[in-house]
User: What shape does this take?
Amino acid sequence: MVFSCTRNVKDQEILGTWNNVANDASYDYQTGKVIFYDEGGLTKAKVEIQGNSIDAENLKIEGNKVAFSVRVEHEQFSIELELKDNKLIGKVLSSEGAIAIAMVKEETLIGTWNYTAEDAPFGFQTGKVIFYEEDGTKKAKIKIYGFTIPTENLEIDGTKVSCTAEVEHEQLSIKLEMKDNQLMGWVQFSDGGMAIEMVKKGAQDNVDTWTSGDNTEIKTVALEGIGRNNLVDEVSESDVVDYKVHTFYYGWYGNPENDGQYNNWNHPVIKHWIDTTWDNAGGYPGGDDIGANFYPQLGSYSSTHREIIDTHMQQIRDAGIGVVAISWWGKDSFTDKSVKTILDTALKYGLKIAFHIEPIYKTVAEFRGHLEDISTNYANHPALYKVNGKPMYYLYNSFNLKYEEWQSMLNPDSLSTIRKTPLDGIFIGLWTTMFDGVFVVKSGFDGFYTYFASDGFAYGSTTSNWPEMSAFAREHNLIYIPSVGPGYIDTRIRPWNEKNTKSRDRGRYYDKMYADAVHTNPDFISITSFNEWHEGTQIEPSIPKKIGEYTYEDYGAETDPLFYIKKTKELVKKFETKF
Assistant: This one.
């Protein structure tokens, strides 16, 4: 191996504890420590491996090179190293040949590191990670915009560092490796992962921490006066339904009789991104055994069946709900098959339809293409819900694109704007994290919703935050749509997510969440959901049922399956004049 380095090793550089990695060594010896220390003015070294401390012999330090020998398990090893970019890199020689070894000084990790994660959600793209020692134990904490988050399960193996952290109710797995004075690696979370880079504070090319962002004024449609202060609902008043109450509707269910196979009823068990316990848990066949904690009165139905759609629209009308926000996964998707039938049936029952666009796009160009599909096929249908003459769109996981991308399409002054074109609409972004309010404004959205029915699951779905979020909406002239639900349970498909379960408590949970929303003066209320069975948020009728050893949840063995349809009607009527 050829070395080239002009630095000289100094005592203060070599002294200390170095974590080593030798990936080609036998399993028990791939990681360990080498400690260089001063004794009587002489520099000495010892190796710590597998709980044993072994004195090094024949230590030589010449220029930027270090060499010594050590006897392990009756085998004599010769180690040759060179200091390069704050690492000791070299080889271990034995009777069986040579293997590569790399060492990082523990003290180089201790300190403050500024991180950059360009693909992180808005507000989390930069921050600090602080490694420190407390009572002899190395620890780490994350600082993001004034908030300090402790990490757990910190492990340091040579050049590799890993830990976990809970950020905004989401558990993250962080894996890093020291490379050229940087920590580089990957952050894994429930929806995927992203690259991360860290530079130690004070190092060259230091990365600044995130602030509230630039103060460039973003000219949004809301700021032009087309936000919550100027809403014109283009539907006539109704004595039967309230068009200010919306519900999220899922047309993704299929069965063999109508569709050739089960769709979504046969949902797999979702793997945890850190805990491997459920990696081989399989899934559910559909039929009587479905991927949900409740069982529908209509059985494993098909969302494309006209009679099912008719029943659903009638039940939604009976619940007093005026607008159905349909989950849409793009042109020619399974959910697109039934849109025309849903629109026609909604018209029959005096309902309106909005599109809940799922994260099926990776660029605004792709998003624009989806708007063109909707506009071409459905824009002129009389059941399409419009506000200020424009269709309303809910955008799930809108934070997947950067605000600059959204702004290029939604800022009226942008050369590529869709404002005042046939593709214009009322665009409602999802508020999940504490930073999403600013993200909504910078993106140019017309308002926001909170979606999740589990109180406390995320910042946006925590009801105690709603007064502040409502005030933010008023300040920025944004449409404010809190989302409420009857409860939450998804442990059949996410057995690791029991902490987010919310008991229905025979309707009392629903009563409170709906009242909490009304008391914050919303523009609309959205109900999660009519029929998201996987997450147990449905108000659609359910029946008691047992399959094998599993007993489905129900609305109470003696409770009318229509309990939550009737409960919703009560809530809508009770609060219809209060928002």
